[in-house]
Structure formats: structure tokens, C-alpha cells
Amino acid sequence: MTSALYLEHYLDSLDNLPIELQRNFTLMRDLDARAQGLMKDLDKLADEYLRNVKTLSADKKKEQLNHIQSLFNKAKEYGDDKVQLAIQTYELVDKHIRRLDSDLARFEAEIQDKALNTNRVQEDSAVSKKGRKKLKEKEKRKKGSAGASSEDESKIARKKQKKGGSVTSTAASGAVGSGAQADTSALGHPADVLDMPVDPNEPTYCLCHQVSYGEMIGCDNPDCPIEWFHFACVGLTTKPKGKWYCPKCTQDRKKK
């Protein structure tokens, strides 16, 4: 029930309350007036009895005392009726107050529940948005990483390798290893390799400007523009001891 509709029903229930209160107060005022009148009569009868008690006979005394007692009982009944009406009037008003307090507590609980549900929906929405944002960022990272080629991984691995170490690279896997021996028969003669189609995205090395294959050796000159060379292209069959420099860097060193 909406607050406006509830207020309308509650005000409708209060329509008869003023009339009932007015009726009870009128009855209480009437009972009070009757009781006050009886008390005045009792005072007069009591005074008259006390003045004439010595001259009255026993039967007369008893008659007047009974009359006084009956009037007193009647006044007491009026007082009791007045108290009962006052209690009824109080309970009538208190009933509406209790109903209002109960309804207010219920409305407050409903408002709190709605606020909690609203907060929960907002939190769920925020979590969902955050999750979608993370998913989008993850997809972007995947797309970015998918664009990186295996040649970059090989180059990074070679740069991390100690200078002068041989590198084994097979056409099947493109893997890079430090100090590893490659089975060149699996690849065939270097001339056969040169006849193979070259991926334009794969980096080239050596004096022959070809991709990596077989065993390769790195120049120990950190400023060498080529860095890596095929064994066959530089006339090597095994890894030399100590430092090794490519032909170009060797000539540059001699000039110095």
C-alpha cells in the first residue's frame, strides 16, 4: 500500500473518533454533575442528622442513616461509571495510536528494505561494469600480444644469451638455446635453406641476410650491427674458444 493510499484509509478510520470522544465526555460531565448533586444532598442530610440525633428515636435514626447510605451508594455508582467511561475513552484513542505506531514501524522497515535492495542492485551493477571493463582490457592485451611474432621472442632470447655462445635454431620450432648443438642434417644443406621462402616479418641475420637456422654465433662486439652469424657463413664448424668477432668488427679493430 502506498503512503498516500494508507493515509487516506487512516484518516477515514478517524472520522468517527471525534464524535465518540464528544459523546463520552458529555456522559462523564453528566455523571459528574449528578454525583456532585448527590454529594450536596448528603452533606445536608448529614448535618441535619447530627443536629437532631439526640432528639430522634431509634427508628428515625435508622431510617435517616439508611437514606444517607443509599444516596452515597448512588454517588459511588456515578463515580464508577465516570471512571469506566474515562478508561474507554483512553483505550479508544490509544488504539489508534498503537495502530499508527505499528504502521510507521512497518513503513520504516519497508523503506530500509528498499534502500538495501537499491544498494545491492547498485553494487551488483558496479561489479558487473568492473568485470566487463577487466574483460575488455584482457581482450585488448590478448589482441596486442597476438600481434607479436616469434621472431621477437627469438631476438630477445639471443640478446639475453651470453656473447659468443652458439644458438641452435630449427626451421620447425624456431627455438633458441645457449650452447646447444643442432642437427644440421635435419635442415639440409644451407643452400637448401636459402631456397626456402622467407617470412617478411621474421628478422634476418648474418652476412647473408637470411633468417636464423642451424648453429649461429654471436659477435662479442656490443656495437656490432649484425650481432649473429651462421657458422658456415663465417667459416666455422665448432664454437671457438674465448671471444669471437665477426669479419667486419675484426677489420675495424685492426684499423684502430
From TrEMBL:
Residues 129-144 have a biased composition (Basic residues). Its main location: nucleus. The gene is LOC107220327. The PHD-type zinc finger mediates the binding to H3K4me3. Residues 120-184 are annotated as: Disordered. Belongs to the ING family. Zn(2+) 2 binds at residues 219, 224, 246, 249. This is Inhibitor of growth protein. It comes from Neodiprion lecontei (Redheaded pine sawfly). InterPro entries: ING_fam, ING_N_histone-binding, Zinc_finger_PHD-type_CS, Znf_FYVE_PHD, Znf_PHD, Znf_PHD-finger, Znf_RING/FYVE/PHD.
